Amino acid sequence: MSRAAIEIRGLTRRYGKTEAVNGLNLTVRAGGCYGFFGRNGAGKTTTIKCLLNLLRPDAGTLRVFGLDPQKDEVAVKSRLSYVPDAVAFYPWMSVRDTLDYFASFRAHWNPAIETDLLRRFGLDPSQKAGALSKGQRTQLALITAVCPEPELLILDEPTSGLDPIVRREFIETVIGAYQSGDTENRTVFVSTHLISEFEGLIDEFTILEQGRELLAMPADDARERFKKIRVRFAAAPGRLDLAGALRVQQTGREAEILANGNSERLLEALRAKQPQELRCESLSLEEIFVSSKILTQANP
Amino acid sequence: MLFQIDFKAGKPVYRQLMDQIRYAAAAGALRPGEPLPSIRPLAEELRLNRNTIAKAYAELESQGIIEILPGKGCFLKENGTPFTKGIRQKLLLSEIDEAVVTAHHLQVDREAFLAMVKERLDYFERKAAATHDENSKTSPRRTP
């Protein structure tokens, strides 16, 4: 069993009477890229803030690199970087000043990555941070996060509100400049709504629902397990009675069926009805997220 | 070589990469001794986790299809696959089964299906011969 970069057990955090996080369990393997999905208000940012010791948990345990972020705050923070969704820099500082300022807090800073990314993003080092666009601020934040070459990169909705080209560059940078270094010790923990853009990057994920994990599994396993079957008959078949299907949606001669690990059996049952066309495809991570409530019902 | 990743294919992404490399090797698009794309640029281009590509390459190496030379990269191996004939045929069987099932759904009958298989075999033979000719004409044979 490989080491865990993050380990969360029974995490609970309330705001007044509202339970933002309510008994969350989660383990992030070191060296992987972990997706943290949930609707607005599901508790993603609260969880991340607890990891960074910006909020104190009401109950449960948190470990980052096996350390307690409350007791060993400096040891934990020196080994990770964080890119929040809304990035703010001191507006009077230039890009150059900002980078030097961030570097001054770090034991290690890779100047080659800095030069490379400044050129790649086309950022002017003499420009004032206050004059940067939202996209440029995110790019600057990414440079400050990647240059220390931390063991853990925590991204909270990093690409929301950015144009498609900046989003693409962002993800390529995470893969190229960050992930390709010392690969055993490069872990990405990303909370996002733009799941399809991160699909290729994510190898494990948790879907958070009302402060608790609804579904947690490796991405390949999820795509293997959750499938969508489309079928068309020569004549309307009447109500399809398919034992084990998670959901059957019928319109006339066509039907769409959701399968949870039993697509082979369902396909066989449908084949026996002599369909004109029968197709089966995996759900994407985004579709899995959207349908997660249905998918997590037990097979009837 | 160019890759096409489909997250809805129901096949793990590393398997898709492996299959496409094998396909390219069978079609002559990738010749023995030729390098495979390096992991980092390929990961960036396909926006895939680099571990996924590393896993595909490692599996292909353990199957004896490519060799990984530290510091140099990954290359298609000269002698193809080390599997015995029986195992190779067994590996192929599941892929054939898939095609047979698809043919059934598309109502392609036995004769038409077999004719198509023959046609594809001829196609790949012609293609491999053509790229080989071109290669020997334009440049001296590369040594791995």
Task: Walk me through the structure.
The complex is a heterodimer of chains A (300) and B (144). Chain A is built from 11 helices and 13 strands. Chain A is of the alpha/beta class and 300 residues long. In chain A, the strands form 3 sheets. Chain A has a 6-stranded mixed β-sheet with strand order 5-6-7-3-8-9, sandwiched between helices. In chain A, strands 11-12-10-13 form a 4-stranded antiparallel β-sheet. The longest helix of chain A is centred in the middle third of the chain and has 16 residues. Chain B is 60% helix and 6% strand. Chain B contains 5 helices and 2 strands; from the N terminus they run H-H-H-E-E-H-H. In chain B, helix 1 packs across helix 3 and helix 2 crosses helix 3. Classes of the chains: A alpha/beta (300), B mainly alpha (144). At the A-B interface, helix 6, helix 8 and strand 13 of A face helix 2 and helix 3 of B.
User: What fraction strand of chain A?
Assistant: 25-35%
> Taking strands numbered 1, 2, ... along the chain, how are they ordered across the largest sheet of chain B?
1-2
Order of helices and strands of chain B: HHHEEHH
Query: What's the number of helices of chain A?
Result: 11
Reported for the largest beta sheet of chain B, the result is: 2 strands, antiparallel
Content-based structural category of chain A: alpha/beta
Can you count the beta strands of chain A?
Answer: 13
Anisotropy-based shape of chain A: elongated
Structural class of chain B: mainly alpha
Uncertain regions spanning at least 5 consecutive residues of chain B: 139-144
Strand residue percentage of chain B: 5-15%
Query: What is the helix content of chain B?
Result: 55-70%
- Shape verdict of chain B: globular
The largest sheet of chain A is: 6 strands, mixed
> How big is the Rg of chain A?
22 Å
Estimate the mean pLDDT confidence of chain B.
82
Distance between the termini of chain A: 34 Å
Q: What's the oligomerization state?
A: heterodimer
